[in-house]
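Q: I'm building a small set of examples for a reading group on sequence design. Run inverse folding on the following structure and report the sequence directly after it, with nothing in between.
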């Protein structure tokens, strides 16, 4: 027994980068020499020289941020085979999927993401999947209901044959095979049967999508009759519920469309995530939560076990507030003309940032401790959350306050009849519930920026929490990148705007370092993306300098003949 408790769950590996460090420092030294030369010769030159000095000062500042962020890259190796030996009673996980537009995010993509989550290698009775539909679309709900029927075939099939890729649309492309590749007739028959059922599912969803009204708004769909996208009551539907543990059980599946009213602020994705946190809190209250976008399917069926290795195996909870997985895209162009896949950022910068106070929170593919999302500080977590006056900040639902008390103590969640929690779930999903509470300011996903993920991650780190970045093989999640320039520009404009809002707001990382517990190098790591939107100004000015100098017969570079 003693040997089992000593089995490692993960290890932190520091990457050697001596040559890269030397090159980075050399380049920084050359930039500083250039600035010194500019400064001492500034009085002998005109405007172009001054503008070049200002631009090059900015470039040097950016390079300092880059060098600091890349300085100490780390990687993590997990041992999921040891997980149940150390923790026979695995904790519950609540999985959140968000979608907001059935046109831009077709239901078949959302369905594949949900099917891949329901089929992960983890006890089904320990999982619950909550889907937030901010469009209040009957098509999305109809698609989920049909997908739940298919899931009862797909999930047992995946687990029986140890299928690696558990998103059906990727599996049936023909480039995936089960781990036991013996060509037995039983597998072939089952595979053909499942494929036929999946094609039927696609057909049903596509036929519904072509109609102005996807189906008869009767029965369970009656709640969608005469609703408007931005003006409707809360709709919560329990699509799947396992009331007893069976070998081929499928995890719980709950549909949520939060209440929206024209004059009420809804706070976009952050508001939807907070509703998911509260509804799941009164229904299943798992101590850990996974959030993914509707287009990020599970590519590694062991991903939950990998994450639990880090969340349960750390010596102190403050070491792993959340576990972030790198974003990998399956449909990006090979040359990536528009930079939609952020290869440099994800592959190089993020590994270095992980060696400071931990990874950024990227908004998808992330496992959270519920108590951290609820606003707990590391010191309170280690003292088992004795400060019960904190509960007053969570709203007036007695059921939710009770579940919050259990969550802050780190309890493993509670077995609950989901139907018995519906009344409380409707209460905490109303658009007026957050009035007079700390939701969006001190707890939950934080409001105040279009980049709510970056702001929430910064808020967690400034309390003193740390995080980890994990890049298993095969990749944990895969998603789709914007296909063209306009889509990429729209997305990047939103990110740049949101990051700039953080920089100029009260949650500025410099203020967090001076007044809270954000480490200095983590502050620099946050500044690097937050000044992203400003970088175009000095870059454009510097690029225009040669043309300006030609037109005005001036120069911003030293003349060669001066030194001959």
């Amino acid at each position: 027994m003693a040997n089992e408790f000593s089995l490692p769950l993960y290890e932190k590996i520091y990457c050697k980068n001596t040559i890269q460090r030397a090159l980075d420092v050399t380049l920084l030294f050359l930039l500083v020499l250039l600035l010194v030369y500019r400064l001492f010769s500034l009085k002998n030159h005109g405007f172009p020289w001054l503008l070049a000095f200002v631009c090059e000062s900015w470039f040097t500042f950016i390079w300092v941020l880059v060098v600091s962020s890349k300085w100490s890259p780390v990687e993590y190796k997990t041992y999921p085979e040891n997980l149940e030996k150390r923790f026979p009673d695995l904790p519950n996980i609540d999985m959140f999927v968000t979608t907001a537009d059935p046109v831009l995010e077709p239901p078949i993509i959302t369905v594949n993401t949900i099917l891949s989550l329901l089929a992960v290698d983890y006890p089904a009775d320990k999982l619950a999947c909550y889907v937030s539909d901010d469009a209040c679309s009957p098509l999305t709900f109809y698609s989920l209901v049909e997908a739940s029927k298919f899931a009862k075939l797909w999930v047992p099939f995946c687990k029986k044959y140890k299928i690696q890729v558990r998103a059906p649309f990727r599996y049936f492309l023909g480039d995936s095979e089960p781990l036991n590749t013996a060509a037995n007739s039983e597998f072939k028959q089952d595979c053909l049967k499942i494929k036929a059922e999946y094609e039927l599912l696609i057909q049903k969803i596509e036929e519904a999508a072509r109609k102005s009204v996807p189906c008869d708004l009767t029965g369970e769909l009656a709640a969608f009759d005469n609703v408007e996208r931005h003006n409707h009551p809360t709709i919560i539907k329990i699509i799947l519920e396992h009331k007893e543990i069976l070998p081929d059980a499928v995890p719980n599946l709950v549909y949520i469309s939060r209440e929206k009213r024209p004059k009420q602020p809804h706070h976009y994705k952050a508001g939807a995530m907070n509703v998911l946190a509260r509804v799941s809190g009164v229904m299943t209250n798992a101590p850990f939560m996974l959030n993914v976008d509707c287009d990020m399917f599970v590519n590694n069926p062991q991903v939950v076990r990998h994450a639990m290795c880090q969340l349960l195996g750390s010596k102190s909870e403050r070491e792993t507030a959340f576990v972030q997985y790198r974003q990998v895209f399956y449909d990006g162009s090979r040359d990536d003309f528009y930079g939609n896949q952020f290869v440099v950022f994800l592959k190089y910068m993020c590994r270095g940032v992980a060696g400071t106070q931990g990874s950024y929170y990227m908004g998808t593919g992330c496992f959270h401790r519920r108590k951290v999302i609820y606003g707990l500080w590391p010191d309170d977590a280690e003292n088992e959350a004795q400060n019960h006056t904190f509960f007053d900040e969570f709203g007036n639902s007695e059921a939710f306050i009770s579940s919050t008390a259990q969550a802050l103590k780190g309890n493993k969640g509670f077995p609950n009849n989901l139907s018995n929690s519906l009344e409380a779930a409707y209460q905490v999903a109303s658009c007026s519930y957050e009035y007079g509470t700390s939701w969006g300011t001190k707890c939950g996903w934080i409001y105040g920026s279009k980049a709510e993920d970056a702001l929430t991650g910064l808020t967690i780190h400034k309390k003193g929490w740390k995080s980890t970045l994990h890049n298993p093989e095969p990749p944990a999640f895969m998603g789709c990148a914007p296909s063209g320039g306009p889509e990429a520009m729209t997305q990047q404009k939103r990110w740049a705007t949101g990051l700039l809002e953080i920089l100029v707001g009260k949650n500025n990382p410099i203020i967090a370092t001076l007044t809270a517990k954000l480490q200095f190098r983590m502050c620099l790591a946050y500044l690097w993306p937050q000044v992203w939107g400003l970088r175009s100004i000095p870059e454009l000015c510097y690029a225009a300098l040669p043309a300006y100098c030609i037109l005005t017969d001036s120069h911003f570079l030293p003349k060669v003949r001066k030194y001959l």
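Residues 60 and 156 are 56 Å apart (CA to CA).
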